[in-house]
Amino acid sequence: MALQKENILIVDDDIDILELLQRHLKSMDYHTYKAVSVKEALYILKDTYIDLLITDIQMPEVDGLQLVKFANEHYPEMPKLVVTGYPSVDGALEVMKSGVIDYLSKPFTKDELKKSIEKAFKQGPQSQKKKPILPHVVNNNQTEMVGASEAFSAVTNIIERVKDNKATVIIKGESGTGKELVARSIHYSGKFSRAPFIAVNCGAIPENLQEAELFGYMKGAFTGANENRNGFFQAAQGGTLFLDEIGTASLAVQTKLLRALQEKEITKVGSQKAEKVDIRIIAATNADLLEDIKNKNFREDLYYRLTVVEITVPPLRERKSDIPLLVEKFLRKYGVEYKDRLLRMSLEALQVLERYHWPGNIRELENIVQRAVIMSDGLIDVKDLPDFLKFQIEFPQNGFLTLKAMEKEYVQRVLEHTKGNKTKAAKILQIDRKTLRDKLN
Questions:
Q1: Global pTM?
Q2: CATH number (domain holding residue 264)
């Protein structure tokens, strides 16, 4: 059974030190989070379960000692280490009095860091109590789902009910809605979280290889089978096997999946011996499987075996109140990755995002925020968004506009954007100035 890695948050305004610490910690098999300021560290602590805090002391604006004091108040059972490039006797005494386990002076060796971490986990609490999860966050060490809408709450309520059992689950929803995140949340928030989670995109496996990849094969079973090999079912033993795009599985594989669900056993390609498996199956699809059943492309008996519990993930257009929270999450992610700091978005830009209908759902929103972070030099504003978002027309709730009225509103909106500059407006509209003048008349 795979052991869950400890989460360590490292805080330092020196990027080189952060990178060095991260390399050392990864080589020790820890999972790391980085923050270049106390402010950024607070965002991570708010939404992430952290096993150990390692922080510098001398930092701009708010220093590391204030972070330690904050952590003592809000996460008293989380062990803390301090590193500093400005050691002093008085400073060390003050830090140790604040409740940290150890105090390291820069430069330090990897072995010194390792000993301090081991000391922290040994002297700190053996099992840290997990902090209460905020209403708008479903968070754990492997995934983070964010939302506050009723549609989002309906999904998280089902996750809470199924996380501690191995009932088969099917997740339905449009592409980009976060179906794999839901599957990961079911697995990692429950009592089987230390067991493997294996994600398989059935649509990415050629049809003639699906059976061998899922169930494994014996040496000589087919050309190229030069050794005995386990499949994804064996890899997920004791844990969860997530089958994405289940509708693309071949009929032959569907028959074997049905047997695996009914009998809790599988047979490798080229073998006559059945093997018992103890796993939870979570399947996902953006296709209409009932229509596939009518067209004889999907087995009806397998469909009902898979739908013990059904979760429908709503499209983003049906949970627009979650957009600000999702934007905050992606700004934190890409701001740190690309700009080494937290970025913010203007209210006007956020309103533009809330008006859009999001055919690509959360994946499209993430891509647009990622692009905006790259294009922006500071506060992300409307100018940093793609042009197709800037000039949207918001239809009234009680009906549709006529084509003429829609054109008029659009031209007016473009003119407002250009502050009455007809040359710029004509360029955006891709018409000449005479045509624009005729339309205005």
A1: 0.62
A2: 3.40.50.300
